[in-house]
Design goal:
There is one protein chain. The protein is an alpha+beta fold. The protein has a domain of 155 residues. The protein is 42% helix and 18% strand. A hairpin with a 2-residue loop joins strand 6 and strand 7.
Length: 231
C-alpha cells in the first residue's frame, strides 16, 4: 500500500489520483465480508491504483485457502489460483498497473511459500508462479474504465476495447478460459427491459474468444514469453 494517499500533486491534478487509506479499505470490505471470503466471488476495481482493495480481498481469500487446504499443497495451488482469477482491476496509469500486478503476486507467493513450508523456492520452468503472473497480466489492465478502452502510455484512449478473461473450472483441474469485451459486460438490464421483458430472460454476453479446457498448471507455454506477462 502506498505510504501516502497521494504520490504527487501533479498526479492528483492530472488524474485525480488519491489512494484509499487502509482503515477505509478494511471497513468497506467488511460491508461485504462474506463475499470477500468466498474464494470464487469476483471483484472488479475500476480505478485500482496499486491495488489497495484487491490486495485486502486477496489476503482474505488466501486466508480461507490456508484454513481449508493448508495441509495439501496441490489443493492449495488450485484454489489459490481460483482466488487470483476472481480479481480484476483497471487503471489509467501504467505504473500503477505494474505495481498492482507485482503486489498481488507478492501476496500470493508469500502465502504459497508458507503453504509449502518453504522459506524460498524457485519456479521451475512454466510452473504455478508463471501461471499466476499470466493470470494477473490478463486481469489487471491499463485502460480507461469510463470509455472502456485501452490507453497508451500517456493515458490517452486507444481504439482497442478493454477485454477481460473469465476463468472457470469445468471438471477436476481443467479450466475453461473465455474473453469478453468490458463494454458488452457493462450493458445495463434497463437497456434491454423491453426486448427481454416477455421472455423474462437476463442478458448473457457472448465471448469474443474461448479456448478448450486445459489443466490450469499448463495454461502457459514455456516458449510464450509475452503470454507469461499477460501481453
Amino acid at each position: 500500500m502506498a505510504d501516502s494517499q497521494i504520490k504527487s500533486r501533479e498526479r492528483v491534478r492530472a488524474h485525480g489520483e488519491v489512494f484509499t487509506a487502509e482503515r477505509e479499505v478494511k471497513a468497506m470490505c467488511d460491508l461485504v465480508k462474506e463475499e470477500t471470503e468466498r474464494i470464487d466471488s469476483r471483484f472488479l476495481e475500476p480505478a485500482c491504483g496499486d491495488g489497495n482493495f484487491l490486495a485486502e480481498i486477496l489476503h482474505r481469500k488466501l486466508a480461507v485457502c490456508d484454513k481449508r487446504y493448508g495441509g495439501a499443497v496441490a489443493d492449495w495451488e488450485k484454489y489459490s489460483f481460483l482466488a487470483v482469477t476472481s480479481l480484476y482491476g483497471i487503471d489509467i496509469l501504467a505504473d500503477n498497473v505494474v505495481a498492482c500486478r507485482e503486489r498481488l503476486f507478492g501476496i500470493w507467493r508469500e502465502c504459497y511459500l508458507a503453504a509449502k513450508n518453504a522459506k524460498s523456492a524457485k519456479d521451475e520452468g512454466c510452473g504455478i508462479e508463471t501461471v499466476i503472473r499470466f493470470v494477473l497480466g490478463k486481469n489487471i489492465l491499463c485502460g480507461n474504465a469510463l470509455s472502456m478502452k485501452r490507453v497508451n502510455e500517456k493515458g490517452e484512449d486507444l481504439e482497442a476495447p478493454i477485454v477481460f478473461t473469465e476463468w472457470n473450472f469445468v471438471t477436476g483441474d481443467l479450466v475453461k478460459r473465455r474473453e469478453f469485451r468490458f463494454d458488452q459486460l457493462q450493458r445495463r438490464e434497463e437497456d434491454l427491459l423491453f426486448a427481454w421483458a416477455e421472455q423474462n430472460q437476463a442478458f448473457v454476453p457472448t465471448p469474443i474468444k474461448e479456448w478448450p479446457p486445459i489443466d490450469f498448471r499448463e495454461l502457459v507455454s514455456c516458449g510464450d514469453a509475452e503470454s507469461q506477462r499477460g501481453g
